[in-house]
Amino acid sequence: MTNEQLRQIRADFPILTEKIYTKDLIYFDNGATTQKPRCVVERIEEGYYHLNANIHRGVHYLSQKATEAHEAARSTVAEFLHAGKREEIIFTRGTTEAINLVATSFGEAFCKAGDEVIVSVMEHHSNIVPWQMLCERKGMRLRVIPINERGELDLEIYKSLLNEHTKIVSIAHVSNVLGTINPVAEIIRLAHEHNVPVLVDGAQSVPHIPVNVVELDADFYVFSAHKIYGPTGIGVLYGKENLLNAIPPYQGGGEMIQTVTFEKTTYNELPFKFEAGTPDYIGSTALAEALRYVQCIGLDTIAIHEHGLLTYATERLFEIEGMHIIGTAKEKSAVISFLVGTIHPYDIGMLLDKLGIAVRTGHHCAQPLIDSLEIPGTVRVSFAFYNTKGEIDNFIVALKRVVGMLQ
Ligand code: PMP
Predict the structure, then answer these.
(1) 230 and 134 in a common domain
(2) Which end of the chain is least crowded, N or C, by CB within 10 Å?
(3) What CATH number does the domain containing 249 carry?
(4) 94 CB under 6 A from ligand 1?
(5) pTM above threshold 0.90
(6) How does DSSP classify residue 199?
């Protein structure tokens, strides 16, 4: 990416010129949520100003236009994930709701006492708790893949965990704490040898890595719009058609039905069977806009730029005495978790904030991982394509100052 390209991209994100306590904002909390380009916000505005009517039901012009836009957004998402059929794309409220949907509906259809679910130690709470709830409901067991000292999954132990009781594997494509890019194709291949389906949590991968759900042979793949420059409150569940057809609806209500009588209700076909109630039809079109924006820059260009930021920031962080980087996987996304000496991560985060720098501190909703590493949490910087080496330079100056104050 040339400097001129980067300048133009940054100009698309008005928030990047904000002052925080009179300082230039440096936004390094992209793993939590990304900033929104003008085109996404304008799409939301256009939706509410010019295209707003409830979808799928109305015979009138606006309703038809809104329905077309929502369904076109579904096709955009399907193309983005390279899904075989657009009906395999279900809009949800986000990654969390998508995982809850699968844990509930798949669990209802296929799981019983004594069965097992495999997750990994590096999962976000949203890929642990729904499975734990299923295990409690059904009397099942949660099995956990550990990691090595670099923060990579132990595939040998994973293989030994797969057995005739395993009903599903649910795994992050990219860890939101360690940045590890997990070998999901291999994980899926191994599970399929046992006829076990795999859900991939793509919350931290889709903004950074091209994803092809058919090539991966993923059974379910989920992500949130807000982490890929889209709006909050909407996300995606991709599921293979045969699996989505085989599991019951998650919620009941309007839209997901074919016929309703007090004696019996029949359910709508895919994807509507899983979309009870009025969907976020403005959010879906804004998500599609965000995906087009990302594709316009190109995920390959994004990956190269972000990898450059990761390498540069990692090198520069080691200028700081006592620097301990948590997560040094060979395959790593642009996320760096670190600690400095015995300084509490929260103190570093608070002081960086006063200098206009937004980082994340704490357990990052991955408490079991943080506990297993026996640390109090981490400071996490996570980059997006609009971040620059200049911002990293300023961050390093600020961090040196903060560490000097806290030592
Ligand atoms: N999984 C991972 C790996 C995440 O990083 C996050 C968000 N931090 C989630 C799931 C949950 O996403 P959401 O809150 O958008 O549902």
Answers:
(1) yes
(2) C
(3) 3.40.640.10
(4) yes
(5) yes
(6) E
